[in-house]
Amino acid sequence: MSDDESDDFRASTPYGRHRQTEVFTTGMLTGETPSVPVAYEDLKAEAMDAMSEEAYAYVAGGAGGESTKRVNRDAFDDHRLVPRVLRDTSERDLRVDVLDDTWPVPFALAPIGVQGVMCDDGDLASARAAAAEDVPYVTSTQSSYPLEDVAAELDAADDDGAPNWFQLYWSTDRDVTASLVDRAEDAGYDAICLTLDTPHLGWRERDLQGGYLPFLDGKGIANYTSDPAFRDRLDAPPEENVREAAREFVDVFADPTLSFADLDWLFDRTDLPVVCKGVLHPGDARRCVAAGAAGVVVSNHGGRQVDRAVAALDRLPAVADAVRDEDADAAVLFDSGVRRGADVLVALALGADAVLLGRPYCYGLALDGEDGVRAVVSNVRADLDLSLALTGYDAVRDVDDAALAPTD
Ligand code: FNR
Fold this sequence. Notes:
Blueprint: H1 3-12, H2 15-30, H3 40-50, H4 53-60, H5 67-77, E1 96-98, E2 101-103, E3 107-109, H6 122-133, E4 137-139, H7 147-154, E5 164-168, H8 174-187, E6 191-195, H9 205-209, H10 222-225, H11 228-231, H12 242-252, H13 263-269, E7 274-279, H14 282-291, E8 295-298, H15 312-326, E9 331-334, H16 341-349, E10 354-357, H17 359-391
Parallel strand pairs: 3-10, 4-5, 5-6, 6-7, 7-8, 8-9, 9-10
Antiparallel strand pairs: 1-2
The structure holds ligand FNR.
């Protein structure tokens, strides 16, 4: 096949086939194979070699003996798709509706803090990749660059692009929390993702053994050192004394006194929809939505918070039912263990509107910055597109539990 022929072929094929063709024709014409591994296991292994030992431990590690991280994956293995035949799947629609927006794909990039330890450009590179791939992005409170700088890369004020959210850790200092929320709104983010499963940092054995907490090195605290309310708490500006700023951050980043009664304050403070992340119990989900949350993210933080916690996927159906029972329009998102396109389909079949992709894009970022994240996103989207078609669907919106084999 000539270069021109392969360009025509790429332009005319649906996404999954387009990506296959891109990879295969490059391989056949030039002998070049993907520099960012296609298989998640290889991606992770190469990222481990590319990263410092402590940075890899920070990303890969989980709480305690890491049994939660393991069951997150085991739960996916308990579900099987049932491919159907003779259905017209020549064209596919990957769009889904989340809150009042249409997402181009049923996944967003999860809020991941301290991306500066994975690549110098950190969140800026991931944001550029998300914008270029037209995939929604959730900026972490613990981003390595201020949320305004990340928003500029996302072009968050641009209504034509995919929506972008700001993830909030609710500080013990209400002025800091208020300031972060106001800044997110001013910067053009479309929603607040309020993470509720981190009132304390989990017991992470790998990080403890390595004596490594990146924040104490001034990493992942840019939203605080750039925040007027946080700076007011310091004796010296962070530029002069980063250690004081880091210690202060550790003291104030999460408020363990929070209860459901506090949610009203946030709903009053912002006009943005608030989605509660880290919910695993239907009762908690119900109360969040009844209080005014626009949705929930069913998640156990990738197994980083509680060892021997339930697999997030196992809680998805019950939480989704509770949420929709309370408010049929509320969003149900899912994360913790999504690695491939078929995983996305299983989560959608079990009741999610969309999912968040976490560790896979961190490894892409560590290997090749913006291009690495783009490669991971492209592969997950292509795999999803083809798995959708081969399961017999032409729209992700139609995927429900009929796509799954019955479980006992
Ligand atoms: C996270 N996660 C996370 N969540 C959040 O709400 N705010 C944050 O700042 C972070 N930071 C963070 C750092 C790292 C290195 C990881 C791996 C995870 C949790 C993240 O949003 C998501 O819930 C998990 O990554 C999902 O698990 P998997 O699929 O990555 O295993």
